[in-house]
Structure formats: structure tokens, C-alpha cells
Amino acid sequence: MPAIDGDLMDQAAGLLKKARSLFVLTGAGISAESGVPTFRGTDGFWKNYSAEQLATPDAFAKNPRLVWEWYHWRQGLILKAEPNPGHHALVEIENRVERFLLLTQNVDDLHSRAGSKNVLQLHGNIFRARCSSCGKEDRRIGDKNASNRLPKCSCGGLLRPDVVWFGELIPSDVWRDSLKFLGGVDLALICGTSGVVWPAAAIPGIACERGIKTIEINLEPTAISSIVDVSIVGKAGEILPQLVSRLRS
Ligand code: BV8
Ligand code: ZN
Fold first, then answer.
1. Total of domains in the chain
2. Where are the alpha helices (DSSP H) in the chain?
3. Residue-range definition of the domain harbouring residue 140
């Protein structure tokens, strides 16, 4: 891992110090150091299936047991995981700005467990289920052997994870509120996302088009690295705390 670029850190800290309103977009990379696998990294496969193969309505219709097994496996990992210094640094940053919104693509609960308050989950929450028939929400999941006995709603319908699968519409209220907030911020921080999945991937371009200053933190350069104002390569769990210590000085 190359040393973190001090000039870029100073530039990013300078933008954060001045910002009165901040929009943060996170992806799987923010939870990677908590031991939660990312989607496209080497750890992105489960039993040789990719997320794109399992996180779809078709996959669930064809083999609900397999899809539930994948979600229970992921729930187990997240339940054992702890928020990492990157999650905690975002909590301190939230407490330092007047207006803050954290839009996460992640379905884990690590941001809220770290203490982030203004969090919107664009793709749902892995610890929520809903009935495929009547739509009723159910929090009963997490029961390990449900893969054998598929979880059912009181109406008899099959429960599904309350997440947004590929090909499904994202929650329009979350998207509308996120774009509205983005329109009024000084600064956007894009952290730990490969920027492949739409419409979340549109966020950095929208920010740049509106002249909003943008910072990217990622383990490697991405498609947006060339359009953001400051692109810092490194681990979020190391960079974010170092930015916070620059804000304290
Ligand atoms: C939609 C929830 C309108 C489930 C997820 C054909 C038909 C239909 C739709 C499409 C189509 N073609 C394209 C689309 C749109 C599609 C899409 O974008 N597909 C992609 C694959 C091209 N999008 C949709 O379907 C969306 N809905 O468009 O509705 C519509 C509807 C019908 C028809 C047309 C249009 C819904 C998408 C939501 C999918 N659900 N998750 C679950 O989690 O189980 S997506 C899931 O994957 C995540 O939520 C996240 O969004 C995405 C993964 O992306 P990342 O978070 O960026 O993670 P990734 O592993 O890719 O990268 C990690 C990054 O972190 C890397 O850059 C790495 O370098 C970095 N990193 C790693 N470690 C660290 C780090 N950085 C810092 N520090 C570290 N330590
Ligand atoms: Zn039901």
C-alpha cells in the first residue's frame, strides 16, 4: 500500500474544515475493514456465485433457499462484525458539520451501530424482511435454520430480504431526499465504492456537474477519480481518522 499523500490529505482536510454541509456516499469498501466482504473484490463470491447472480428477483423465484442461505451467511458475518475506525470517523465528521447526510449502498447496519444519525440506506437493510405477497415488514429473520424451513409471513406468503435487488426500483423517497440534500451541500465525500451500480453511481457526476467540491477515498483509482477534486488512495479505516485528526488540530 503506497504511503497516503500528505498534500491530498491537507487539501481534503481544508475542504472538510470549510464545509458547512456535507453529503457522504459509501459503498462496501467502508465495511471491508470490519470483515464484511465487498462485492467486486476477491472475497466477492459465495459458493462461486456473484452478487449479481443472487441479488435478483429471478434468483429468489428460482431458488429461495439458496438466496436465503446467502443472506443468512451475510447476516452472520455482519452480526459478528464491529464498526471500524472509518465508520467512527464519519460519526465525528457528522458532529462537526451543520448539515450532514450519509447515503449508503450497504445493507449492513454498521454506520448506525457506529452512531451515525442521518443515514439513508439506498438498497435496504439485510436485517429486515418483507412478505413477497402482502408486503408486510417482518424482523424475525436471522433465524439460522430458516434456509431449511423458508420463512413465511402470517398470511402464508414467502418472506424475502427487504433489500433492493438488481432490476428492482430503488426507494423513490430515499432517492428524492438524497438528491434534494445533495443539491444544497458545499462538499460531497465518496467513500469505498467502485461506482458500478446505478443509480448510486450517478451521484459523483451530479455533484461535479453542480460545482460541488468532491473528495473520493478508495483503495484504488476508480472511474470517478479523474472527475473529483481530491482523490485519495488508501484504506478508509486509516484515511478518515487521519482526516479527523487534521480537523481537530
Ligand atoms: C434500478 C442490495 C431501475 C442487495 C445492491 C439491466 C436491467 C435492470 C437494471 C439494470 C440493467 N443494467 C444496469 C442496470 C442497473 C442496475 C445496475 O447498476 N447494474 C450494474 C451491475 C451495472 N441497477 C439496478 O438494477 C438498480 N435499480 O436501476 O432500477 C430499473 C429497474 C428495472 C429495469 C431498469 C432500471 C438497483 C441496484 C441495487 C442492487 N442492490 N445491494 C444486497 O446487498 O444483497 S447492489 C450492491 O452492489 C451494493 O449495494 C452496492 O451498490 C453494489 C456494490 O458496489 P460497491 O458498494 O461499490 O462495492 P464493490 O465491491 O463494487 O466495490 C468496493 C469498493 O471499495 C472498491 O472500489 C474497492 O476498491 C473499495 N475498497 C475496498 N476496501 C476498501 C475500499 N475503499 C476504501 N477502504 C477500504 N478498506
Ligand atoms: Zn404476508
1. 2
2. 6-18, 29-32, 51-54, 57-62, 64-80, 85-96, 110-114, 172-182, 203-209, 236-248
3. 37-80+127-163
Cell numbers 451530479: residue: 206
Atom of ligand 1 at shortest range from CA of 38: 60
Q: How far is the CA of 135 from the centre of ligand 2 (A)?
A: 6
Same domain, 74 and 87: no
Residues near 45 by Cβ (< 8 Å), separated by ≥ 6?
Answer: none
Assess whether 111 carries a catalytic annotation: no
Q: Residue 34 has what DSSP assignment?
A: T
- How far apart are the C-alpha atoms of 228 and 113, rounded to whole Å? 29
Q: Which atom of ligand 1 is the closest one to the Cα of 70?
A: 44
What is the structure's pLDDT at 1? Answer: 64
Which residue, by CA, sits nearest to atom 69 of ligand 1?
A: 219
pLDDT digits (tens, 9 = 90+) for 3-43: 778 999 999 999 999 999 999 999 999 999 999 999 987 77
CA 42/CA 88 separation, integer angstroms: 26
Indicate whether 131 and 209 sit together in one domain: no
C-alpha cell at 129: 424482511
Q: Is the per-residue pLDDT at 147 higher than 60? A: no
